[in-house]
Design goal:
- The strands form four sheets. Strands 1, 2, 3, 6, 7 and 8 form a six-stranded antiparallel β-sheet that branches. Strands 4, 5, 9, 10, 20 and 21 form a six-stranded mixed β-sheet that branches.
- The longest helix has 27 residues, at 2-28.
- This protein has helices at residues 2-28, 160-167, 192-210, 223-234, 238-241, 256-261, 273-276, 302-308, 353-357, 368-371, 388-399, and strands at residues 31-34, 38-41, 44-52, 61-68, 71-79, 84-90, 95-98, 102-106, 117-127, 130-140, 144-147, 180-182, 216-221, 242-248, 285-286, 317-322, 325-336, 339-347, 374-379, 417-422, 427-428.
- The chain is an alpha/beta fold.
- It starts with a helix and ends in a 5-residue tail after the last strand.
- Helix content is 25%, strand content 31%.
- The radius of gyration is 30 Å and the shape is elongated.
- The protein has two domains: 28-140 and 404-428, Immunoglobulin-like (Sandwich), CATH 2.60.40; 144-399, Alpha/Beta hydrolase fold, catalytic domain (Rossmann fold, 3-Layer(aba) Sandwich), CATH 3.40.50.
């Protein structure tokens, strides 16, 4: 019995020693991570490499692999001299810098972006027989300009709910190189043509100077969609400048509400130049229920008709997002004021679904050069016109990083590996400044 107790004691002591050794080995392991990337300046991305839990000896080493613009750049193994290493990727210069301004690797400079650019980074740190790995992929996106609708200038500021929908997906309207812009314009004073000229100047003087990009995405809400379309049709260079055009509740064939509200004494906001350019281009009036639909002499809209005569170029990826409430939107007027009757169709209360999609209404021809260019048409459900951009914002943010591929790293050979930290496959670029 005494011998058995002794044997059990020895076994327990050995197990305790083994477990103590295992715990000591776990404590000796370390972790490497990459801080949230942020823009230092247009085209220059920064982040810190942070290593925690290193032992005093032996000397740790670090190696880098960066995939950017179709190139894979490797920095061979070299001593790690500090547990926190500030690093930057300079696209215009084609350099990877650490510790401030020390160049450690070079690549072919990447010109201003014409498409979303994924940047993948792998950091391998070794100390003795222990290895720690951190991997992260960020996406530098083309700048996105939101062009709001009629009466946007009453608020004189960006809609916080809309901006929040984008920012929750990683977009940033702040910092030294933002990728989200809100264009405010004087909708009650400007015509469609004048508002489009103001947008072109804003993109030229603000957006392209702040962002490292040669192309942009445009989100046009209601009248804002027509302003964007006008520049694509008539402003030199815009057919090549715009990559994605997102039209949200845009009255591509006008809105009957613009005609009706202008007849009422309180409808002064429906009698501005911009509001008159929202009149329907489809037949929307008839003298009596037995007559065919036509366009009344006081309801013609030559400006929108001119725009709709210009097909959307195939180089622009266009999307239409719309509301659809059955029977909730004016589609026609019968009779003469003040003795009139109304016809209704699916829409958001202001814009018919067919108008948003460029489809025929009341026997009209639609907008073939627009509707057949849409990559996708997305039904946002029974939403009211004023809520559609808020509802659409997170969906649009996700759409704007489509067709993005990332670099896949191979296995890291090592004898013993500590925790491997990997970011999601695509991590939106956050501007932490």
């Amino acid at each position: 019995m005494a011998m058995r107790r002794t044997a059990l004691f020895l076994v327990g002591a050995v197990l305790a020693a083994v477990l103590a050794g295992a715990e000591g080995h776990e404590e000796a392991q370390f972790v490497v991570r990459i801080s949230a990337p942020h823009m230092l300046s247009p085209g220059r991305l920064g982040a810190d490499v942070i290593v925690e839990g290193l032992r005093p000896e032996p000397q740790p080493t670090i190696e880098w692999t960066v995939a950017v613009g179709g190139q894979v750049v490797r920095r061979p193994t070299h001593p790690l001299i500090a547990p926190r290493v500030p690093a930057s990727i300079d696209l215009p210069a084609g350099r990877i810098r650490v510790g401030g301004d020390v160049s450690v690797a070079e690549f072919t400079p990447v010109p201003p972006l014409e498409e979303n650019l994924p940047i993948s980074v792998e950091i391998v740190v070794r100390q003795g027989d222990t290895t720690a790995v951190a991997r992260q992929t960020v996406v530098m996106r083309l700048p996105t300009v939101i062009v709001p609708g009629y009466l946007n200038d009453i608020a004189e500021a960006a809609d916080p709910e809309v901006m929040s929908g984008f920012e929750r997906r990683g977009f940033s309207a702040a910092g030294p190189s933002p990728d989200l812009f809100w264009f405010t314009y004087r909708s009650r004073a400007l015509s469609l043509r004048d508002a489009a000229a103001a947008l072109a100047a804003y993109v030229r003087n603000v957006v392209l100077r702040a962002a490292y990009a040669a192309r942009i995405n445009v989100v046009g809400y209601s009248l804002g969609g027509l302003i964007a379309r006008w520049n694509i049709a008539f402003e030199p260079g815009w057919s090549r400048l715009v990559d994605r055009l997102i039209l949200v509740a845009t009255p591509n064939e006008g809105s009957v509400a613009s005609y009706v509200y202008a007849w009422y004494p309180a409808g002064i906001l429906a009698r501005t130049r911009a509001a008159r350019e929202l009149l329907p281009t489809f037949p929307f009036w008839r003298p009596d229920p037995q007559s065919s639909w036509t366009i009344p002499p006081d309801g013609r809209n030559p400006t929108l008709a001119e725009l709709n005569a210009h097909p959307l170029p195939e180089s622009v990826r266009a999307y239409a997002l719309y509301g659809r409430r059955e029977g909730g939107t004016m589609s026609g007027v019968t009779g003469r004021f003040p003795n009139i009757g109304f016809s209704f169709g699916p829409g958001d209360g202001v814009v018919l679904t067919a108008s948003a999609l460029g489809l025929p209404v009341n026997g009209g021809g639609g907008v073939p050069g627009l509707t057949d260019r849409f990559v996708a048409a997305i039904d946002l459900g029974p939403q009211r016109h004023l809520q559609l951009l808020v509802v659409a914002a997170p969906k649009i943010a996700d759409m704007l990083i489509d067709r993005t591929t990332t670099y896949r790293f191979g296995p890291v050979p090592c004898a013993c590996r500590s925790r491997v930290q990997e970011a999601p496959r695509v991590l939106p670029l956050l501007d932490s400044l």
